[in-house]
């Protein structure tokens, strides 16, 4: 930090302490014209180890709890930079430097959630009635409405609460940090029209550094480009196209598939379990497949090996062949005889006659 900037900040700190009550209004109106003071205060906030940070935060608190609107607006313009510095210091566990900033943010929060009477503030908006003209519609185009008792009871304007009531906080924790900082940014957005260019620049810097949502940012950029093309605004077109051209293409391509998620192995469903269940049919089928593989391996073996045939003494082969058995190297006459005997047995079963079987005896040669 330069010596001149340090002198400007020290003069600003001492000037307000000796200021009379009647001169506060004129003093507050001239603060926004002091550009050198604003830039010096940004340097103090960004320099975390500066000894001027604590008195500057105390001065901001004195400004904000005063009833002068310009003093509150002057303090509010540094809110994005204060939030960003607090988040940076909280991640680095620098409690000594972040203590004064945390106290200032909590003070602004506790002042904003209460009204002048000390009650919890409710932030709300009113839904306009279609029976009254506005910049968006004419009541004559809607048509005549019957003035019934129910219509007259609903004639009042509807009020919608979008924030509040909020509880008071004594310290910032991981549980309430998001709620407090979101409410502070809501207060900042309500006065966005009165913020100078350095404050808007600080807000953009904080948002671009803190936000990592590529899909949402790309959609917002497309909306800005569409509006700029529709209204033929040259400066927004130039800036939006420059931002789009400077984006890293790798990060955008990585998010085209959608929202990032964690892949988790799920348990199999009931249909999947029943399909793989072990039954008697599956065991029989597995045994048949195994026998067919064994038979195929035997048939495809070396033709030089000698196959010993089985000779039936009785020439009767009407009994059933068990699983895994196979008549090897049958002659053509034996195959015809076996087929004829199987046909006779099938006709006997069809007519209801008892089936006659003979014991098979084989002779190994």
UniProtKB/TrEMBL annotation:
<dbReference type="GO" id="GO:0072659">
    <property type="term" value="P:protein localization to plasma membrane"/>
</dbReference>
<dbReference type="GO" id="GO:0005886">
    <property type="term" value="C:plasma membrane"/>
</dbReference>
<protein>
    <recommendedName>
        <fullName>Family with sequence similarity 126 member A</fullName>
    </recommendedName>
</protein>
<keyword id="KW-0472">Membrane</keyword>
<comment type="similarity">
    <text>Belongs to the Hyccin family.</text>
</comment>
<dbReference type="Pfam" id="PF09790">
    <property type="entry name" value="Hyccin"/>
</dbReference>
<dbReference type="InterPro" id="IPR018619">
    <property type="entry name" value="Hyccin"/>
</dbReference>
<keyword id="KW-1003">Cell membrane</keyword>
<dbReference type="GO" id="GO:0005829">
    <property type="term" value="C:cytosol"/>
</dbReference>
<keyword id="KW-0963">Cytoplasm</keyword>
<dbReference type="GO" id="GO:0046854">
    <property type="term" value="P:phosphatidylinositol phosphate biosynthetic process"/>
</dbReference>
